[in-house]
Predict the 3D structure of the following.
Amino acid sequence: MKGAPWWACWVVAVGSACIEAESYRPTLVVAVQPETVAAGQPVAWTARLVDGQTESAAVTVAFESDLEPELAFSGRELYPRVAGTHALTARASVDGEYLEASLALDVAAAPAQHLEVTLAESPSVAGATVALLARATDAFGNAVNVGNLLLDADPAVQIGDGVVSATEAGSWSITAQLDEQVVTVPFEVVPGAPDAIALTVETFTDTVTTTVRVTDEYDNPVRVSTELSVDGVEHVVLGSVIYFLGEGTAEIVAVEPTSGLASAPITVTADWSAPVLTIDSPERGAWLSVGTVDFTGTATDAVSNPVVLEVDGAAVTLADGVWSHPIPLAFGMTVVETLAFDAAGHRARDLRAVVAGALRVLGETEPDGMLVRLDEDPAGLGVVERMAEEALEGLDLAKEDDNPVYSDAEKTCRTQLGVTVCVWTRLTVELDQIAYESVDVELDGQSTGLLDATVTLGDVDVDWAGSGMLSDAPFSDSGRGTASQMVVMFDLAFAVVDQAVEVTASNVAVELVDFDLGASADTVAAAAALGVDLNALVGEVVERAAAGVLPGIVEDAIEGAFADLNVTLGWPQGSVLVSRPTEVQVDETGLALQFGTVTTLDTWALDGPERGALVRSTNRPSWTHTEPAAMALSLNTLNQIFHANWGGGFLDVDGGPEVFDIDMAVFTAALPGIRTLVGTVRATYPPLFVPDAAGQLRMELPELRVDFYDGEIVEGESVYAIFLTVSTPVDVALSDNRLDLIWGEQEVWMDIERAPQDADLFFLEALLESFSAGLVLNDYELVDALPLPSIGDSELEGVAVGFFGPDEAYLVIDGRFHDD
């Protein structure tokens, strides 16, 4: 192989290094790929010998680095680990000679393997800027450029160019990321110097709890000592609490002594008294007229103003503490709640019930107190018909003073051949008995207001005897005349005289059907000779006898039946209810009897006024006619009964724990001030039965005054004084053929007039609610005593009962009269 000239120059490595060689001496040529690499990454190398223009095959070389003495390699790959520009020397042995070549290799740091971030100052004051220091190395310890460091932080932290800051004190976090390395740096920020002071207060009955807040310029709380300055009502300061020794106002300021900062002053009011609320009218126990009434009074407070007033939920304006507000009063009981609030939030309350409506005093008659309806039916008006039939059974209509029913004589003379011959014809007939086998009475109502009465006598027998003379020949005769029936018809009119029903018959008509006297031939001939129709004559006599007797007996029977419906009923309190008829009304379906009711009382047992029973004018009930008989009882009558018994002390209660069903161990624990319980209950009003607007019957007990005493009853010195008002829905039913009142869930209002401050008022209210329920149940006794009407031996058996209201306001029992 021919070598190159001696002056020739070869490039043997990256760069412009030249190696001068002798002619025909081979040259070592070495190359690396890539020429720039990250630490730890492989670098491929190639080496060959060049002899003149001819290249030889690849050769094996050894490498040395000026930066990394222990340069790692494997096969034809180098693995540099030190960052920087490596000066590489490659050596090869050729034919016993060593050849060298030089070249450069740029090695960059590998991705960060270790990252360290710190703050120049920690903790930092709010608002201050703090330098952020960062250092990173790769896996081989080479320094990594942190210029690409990514920073993130909590929202409160602001990040600048190599610095961080925060105005909000707290413990925050800063996150730094380089390559795949992430570190979190805690950033503590503390408040700065005091810049402002604020005072807040929470007021209680006789104390004020204060809260003082000192902050830096960024509103971060600063912990420093503060003091309270209080000017005004006498007080004691203990820590953050101010105790007032009297009622009034005070100005409070918080001070930070070191900086001299002072809060804005706060004025507070020490007020543990409720406003003074008075109701001037209406007074407790007032009985008013239905309509609108003005509630008037005063509401004042010596310390906390203004006073806010509400009457039945409506805001009412005060004029120098005086107020007036109209309240609509419906029939019955109206509960009115008045509330007064002072500026401190204390409340005064008055709750009272007033009653509106007309009064029926003791001894005054309620004209429509009770009504009894009898329809045309065997179980209705039929009971009166049966009483009339019983009164008509077994009668003899013949009267002694009517005999003889016929008596006449006539002499007949006839002259023949100068001879006058005279003969006598004489006839006398007497009735011994007018009897009948059966009797039926029908009473039919008419639109004229009269009852049509029809009395049918079946199988009428007329026993008679006669004597006479026919052609001077005497004879005698007797027999029994018969008729299939005799029908007596008449009208019945009704009137009430001296609290009794009077029945008057008129327009009497009698028909004797198929009458045959059954006389002998002599009697018939004598009657014919005398020119009389004896059969017709006797029939007329029988009809007159029936017309003269039967209507009066029916009148008496009906009057007696109606008298049976009168009621006289007494109660242990000395009260008496009397009902007497006031009117009888007849229509096409039957009749209705109207009874006035009146109550009396032996002795008035209460200290207060007698007042009266609550009444109002109502429509009469709309009869259902589902049953043939009915009784209607007016709520006015119920109120009469309850008023009379109330006056007799029915609701008055005096006694100890056993009367009130109280466990004294529980009572004294919850309601202090009483060691030996004595209690009284006084009802300001009688119980009231009223329909509400929806037609629901309600029983109302307004203004029950309950007093609890310790040991003995001393008027005006009770430990507890409460006004209790109760309203209970009432349904009606029948039980053992008596009225049964079914009490619903009661609504209770309480106005506590007097009680110790430490009393458990919730317990007191629960106790009295239970007690009031017992009072309501006791009212059942008065109604249970009311009997259902009876006529003779027939009693009204109730089938259904209901309340019709509000315009009718009657308890109506539908039923049937049945014979015992």
User: Anything to note?
Assistant: The first helix runs from residue 382 to 392. The chain has a mean pLDDT of 89. The chain is about 10% helix and 55% strand.
